[in-house]
Amino acid sequence: MHVGLHHYLFVSFLLFSLGLLGVIMRRNLLVIYMSLELMLNSANLALVSFSRFNHKLDGQVLVFFIITVAAAEVAVGLALIVALYRKRQSAHVEDLTSMKL
Amino acid sequence: MEQINNLVNGGAVEDVLFYVFAALTLLCAILVVANPFSRSPVTSAMFLVLTIISMSGLFLLLHAFFLAAVQILVYAGAVMVLFLFVIMLLDLKEEARRKIKFFGLAAGLVSVGIVFSIFVKSLASLQPEAAGPALEGETYALGKLLFTQYTLPFEIVSVLLLVAMIGVILLSKRKLE
C-alpha cells in the first residue's frame, strides 16, 4: 500500500499518545518535560505532512514557529525546575504537593 | 540497475524508508516514556535525541529539508544539550520503581481513547489529496513566505525569545531582590 497522509497522521497520533501517557503516568519532572517535547514533535509531524500533501507551505512555517517557541519554553521550564530543586531538593511530582487541598 | 531505477521512481524505496523511520521513531519514543531497563532520566534524554533524529528522517521524506536540518540543529543540538546539562546539574539519582497507580493508568488510557476518537473523526473528514504542482526548492520558498506573509509573527517570536532569555536569567538568580 502506498504511503500517504493517513500513515503519517497515524504515526503522529501514536507519538502524541505516548507523550500523553508519559505526562500522566511518569513522576519525574524532567521525564514529564521530555514527554511534552514528544507531544510537540508529533504535532510538528502532522503539520509537515498536511503541508506536504496539500501542496502548501504554511504548515512548515507554523512548524518553524513551534520549534522556536518550544526552545523558549524548554529554557524557561528548565530554569523553573532548577529553582524548584534548589528549594525542595527534589524533582519528583509526589514531593511537590504544597498546593494540594 | 533498471530494476533499482523502477523501484526509486515508483516510490517503493520511499515507502520502505517511511516504515523504517516510523518504526525507529516509535520505538525510541516508547523507550523515552517507559524504558524497561533503566529509570534514569539520562537514558530517556538520549532516546529522545534518537527519536528527534529519526523524526527528521521523516521530515526529509516529506521534502521538508530545511525543517529537518532545523530539527537536528535546534532540538537534538540545543534543546537536548540543555536537558542533559540540567539533569547532570541536579545530579538526579536513579528513580526507584514505584507502583503504577490505578488512577493514573485509567486516566492515561481514557485520555488516549479520547484522542483516538478525535483522530478517527478527523480522518473521516479528510479531503482527498489536493491536486497541484509538487513543491520544489522549498527552502527558498519557505524563506520568502517567512519574510513576506509571516513577518509580524516572525518579529513577535523574536521578542518572545528575548523575553524568555530575560525570564531565565531572573529565575536562575540566587536571590530575587
In short:
Chain A contains 3 helices and no strands. Chain A has helices at 5-25, 29-53, 58-88. Chain B is mainly α and 177 residues long.
Total strands of chain B: 0
Rg from alpha-carbon coordinates of chain A: 17 Å
Content of β-strand of chain A:
under 5%
* Distance N to C terminus of chain A: 54 Å
Low-confidence stretches of chain A: none
Give the CATH topology of the largest domain in chain B.
Answer: Four Helix Bundle (Hemerythrin (Met), subunit A)
- The chain-level structural class of chain A is mainly alpha
Q: H/E series of chain B, N to C? A: HHHHHHH
Strand percentage of chain B, roughly?
under 5%
Task: List the keywords.
heterodimer; A: 101 residues; mainly alpha; Helix Hairpins; 0% strand; B: 177 residues; Four Helix Bundle (Hemerythrin (Met), subunit A); 2 domains; 7 helices
Written description of the protein model:
The complex is a heterodimer of chains A (101) and B (177). Chain A is an all-alpha fold. Chain A has one domain (5-93): Helix Hairpins, CATH 1.10.287. Chain A contains three helices and no strands. Chain A has helices at 5-25, 29-53, 58-88. In chain A, helix 1 (5-25) runs antiparallel to helix 2 and helix 2 packs antiparallel against helix 3 (58-88). The longest helix of chain A has 31 residues, at 58-88. Chain A is elongated. Chain B is mostly helical. Chain B is 75% helix and 0% strand. Chain B contains seven helices and no strands. Chains A and B meet through helix 1, helix 2 and helix 3 of A and helix 2, helix 3, helix 4, helix 5 and helix 6 of B.
Q: Mind sketching the topology for me?
A:
The complex is a heterodimer of chains A (101) and B (177).
Chain A: H1 5-25, H2 29-53, H3 58-88
Chain B: H1 2-10, H2 12-33, H3 41-61, H4 65-90, H5 102-124, H6 138-148, H7 151-171
